[in-house]
Amino acid sequence: MAKRRVRAVDPWKTKQWFVIKAPKVFGEKDVGQTAAQEPDMLIGRTVEVLGSEVTGSLSHLQYLLWFKINKVVGSNAFTDLVGYELERSFMKRLTRRHISKVEVVFDVETRDKKKLHVKAIAWTAVKVSRKKRTDMRKKMMEMITEEAKKKDKDELIKEFFAGDLTKRIAEELKKIAPIRRVEIAKVRYIPEEVEKVPASSS
Fold first, then answer.
1. Beta carbons within 8 Å of 84's beta carbon, 6+ residues apart
2. What is the pTM of this model?
3. What is the secondary structure of 101-154 as a DSSP string?
4. CA 93, 95, 99, 101 torsion: positive or negative?
5. Strands 76-86 and 16-21, bridge-based pairing
6. Beta strand spans in 4-114 (E)
7. Are 72 and 78 contacting, i.e. CB atoms less than 8 angstroms apart?
8. DSSP bridge partners of 48
9. Of 145, 146, 163, which Cα lies nearest the Cα of 155?
10. What are the residue ranges of helices labelled H in the chain?
11. Would you write out the chain's pLDDT as a tens digit for each of its 202 residues?
12. 3-class SS at 27?
């Protein structure tokens, strides 16, 4: 007796497509699509979106935003803003010989008591002394921390890459040394459950 052939089922045919919605701070704009067999399988999934896709400005093309899916309603997947990163190739083009690249990495707390891990960078027009680099780091931390006190998490992250904070920081830093550019190059939301994990003994 001949064996009956069993046809393989294409897994893509069993999946549903969902529209990814940007967070409320960006007007819940459609920013892409994703597929899953069940809606619940999307919860917690992180998607990467170009900054220009949510702002409509080519000046934000070099930013990669991170959205985490937190709710699915019908065919729509709603997201939370969890951070962004400036493309490394873009930063590499800004870094040249005979200038100083001044970095500061620290955590800030927002008005709604959320914690963000922030990396800010200033590129000078000339080489500067250690003392001036220290003063520049201090000023960047001071201005970013003060801005964080005024805004909720999503508002602050949007301000970091799409607002005028970096321009204001650059104007202050020019009082210390000639400045080419200032960028808040990376921001990452630190969830409360991560904060509460005890430190490793190693």
1. 51, 63, 64, 65, 66, 157, 160, 161, 186, 187
2. 0.84
3. EEEEEEEEE-TTS-EEEEEEEEEESS---HHHHHHHHHHHHHHHHHHHTTS-HH
4. positive
5. parallel
6. 16-21, 30-36, 46-50, 63-73, 76-86, 101-109
7. yes
8. 66
9. 163
10. 51-55, 88-94, 130-148, 153-162, 165-173, 192-195
11. 555 555 554 555 668 999 999 999 999 999 999 999 899 999 999 999 999 999 989 989 999 999 999 999 999 999 999 999 999 888 888 888 789 999 999 999 999 999 999 999 999 999 999 999 999 999 999 999 999 999 999 999 999 999 999 999 999 999 999 999 999 999 999 997 655 544 444 3
12. coil
In single-letter form, the type of residue at position 150 comes to K
- Contact of 15 with 37, CB cutoff 8 Å: yes
Whether the Cβ atoms of residue 83 and residue 187 lie closer than 8 Å to each other: yes
Counting every residue, how long is the chain? 202
194 exposed, middle or buried (CB, 10 Å; 0-12, 13-18, 19+)?
Answer: exposed
Domains identified in the chain and CATH numbers: 16-86 (no CATH), 88-192 (3.30.479.30)
